[in-house]
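Example for tutorial group B:
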């Protein structure tokens, strides 16, 4: 099949899934956009956590990032993820306000690089940057971009020199600094999201949060471990000479 014909079929399939799922009423507590990227180590995971999220009342909508569907068949991806609620990047950007959580299950090096360089030319990265600036929950499973994770040894891709691995790890830490929560263990993923949907408290510090504290004359904010602090919030805190500290023993 020619690439143009293939693209038309893919767009039509995603459009049909999108329309069908919009019409389906579901009593979910929150909606998560799962951005699925192509990865150099391919898709070597079973995405079991997506079903776990779904079963615990979190609505999952999967959005294929740029070029993914040029390499994988959408029907096969739906079978592999076991989720058939899919949405195009264009529709995801158009309806981005509906998503409370943004999740990357296969974080690639290219996404890491684009995020730390604020490359909003890519729709997927623009969505994530918007979510961070909006104070939404943005989470990534870090094994795909962590050169020291055992998955790279299993793929025989662990022979890079120390400098290469150190640079990769530093880039990953910069992503964390942007406010993206990095989860290292698959078994921690479900509890992480349940904590955010069941507590009823938004674990995010935004610029507005800082401004409200500043109006009350406060100069120190103590937050729980794992609280997301947006980049704009950090800038605002510096502007008002406010310190943000992490609670001990949390």
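The residue assignment follows.
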């Amino acid at each position: 099949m020619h690439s143009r014909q293939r693209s038309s079929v893919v767009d039509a399939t995603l459009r049909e899934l999108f329309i069908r799922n919009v019409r389906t009423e579901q009593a979910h507590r929150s909606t998560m956009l799962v951005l699925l990227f192509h990865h150099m180590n391919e898709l070597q995971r079973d995405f079991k956590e997506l079903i776990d999220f779904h079963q615990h009342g979190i609505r999952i909508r999967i959005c294929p990032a740029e070029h993914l569907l040029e390499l994988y068949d959408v029907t096969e991806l739906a079978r592999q993820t076991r989720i058939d609620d899919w949405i195009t990047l264009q529709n995801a950007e158009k309806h981005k306000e509906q998503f409370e959580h943004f999740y990357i299950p296969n974080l690639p090096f290219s996404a890491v690089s684009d995020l730390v360089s604020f490359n909003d030319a890519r729709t997927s990265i623009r969505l994530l940057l918007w979510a961070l600036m909006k104070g939404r929950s943005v989470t990534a499973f870090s094994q795909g971009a962590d050169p020291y994770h055992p998955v790279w040894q299993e793929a025989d891709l662990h022979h890079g020199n120390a400098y290469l691995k150190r640079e990769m790890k530093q880039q990953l830490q910069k992503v964390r600094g942007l406010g993206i929560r990095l989860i290292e263990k698959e078994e921690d993923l479900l509890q992480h999201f349940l904590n955010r949907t069941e507590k009823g408290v938004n674990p995010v510090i935004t610029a507005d949060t800082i401004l409200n504290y500043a109006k009350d004359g406060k100069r120190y904010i103590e937050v729980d471990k794992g609280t997301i602090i947006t980049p704009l919030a950090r800038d605002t805190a510096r502007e008002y000479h406010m310190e943000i500290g992490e609670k001990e023993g949390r």
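Residues 10 and 69 are 8 Å apart (CA to CA). Compare this with the pattern of hydrophobic and polar residues in the output above.
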